[in-house]
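Long-time lurker. I teach an intro course on protein structure, and each term I like to show students one example going from raw sequence to a predicted 3D structure in token notation. This year I'd like something fresh instead of my usual example. Would anyone be willing to generate the tokens for the chain below so I can use it in lecture? Attribution to the forum is fine with me.
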Amino acid sequence: MRDEYEIQDLISRYSDAITRREWSTVSSVFAADATWQVLGEPGFRFDGDKIGPGIRSLVEPSNHLVQMNTPAIVAVNGNGATARSTIFETGEYEAGRFQAFKCRFESFGIYSDRLRKDDGRWRFASREFTILNMRISRVDAVSK
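-- Reply from a regular --
Happy to contribute to a lecture. Here you go:
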């Protein structure tokens, strides 16, 4: 069960780092040859050393973005593993980033992960996020 615990910790550290904008931690949880992608609309994909900066380019322009994960279903096979976890994200962007208006979003989806243990440490070999539901709402200016 130690490996399963370490993998759950890795998934939780990733979500915490996204929320707190700790980009060095985000980059550190991926293997050098890893891939990260969002399936569906909008779709994104980053590979290798482009993962950390790529995720940062999506999150940093937001006024805030919070990511919460559920406990993962983990299957370990030697130095390889798979994991699946449900994610809830919420955030806010100024007009022009993803919409023509200032918006808030809520997104539910599933991360399907392949992991690899190198030098005694688990890292993501791939993370694929499938969006199940996304709601975007307009943020109207507050009148004084």
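Some talking points for your students: The chain has a mean pLDDT of 91. Residues 2-138 form a domain with the Nuclear Transport Factor 2; Chain: A, fold (CATH 3.10.450.50).
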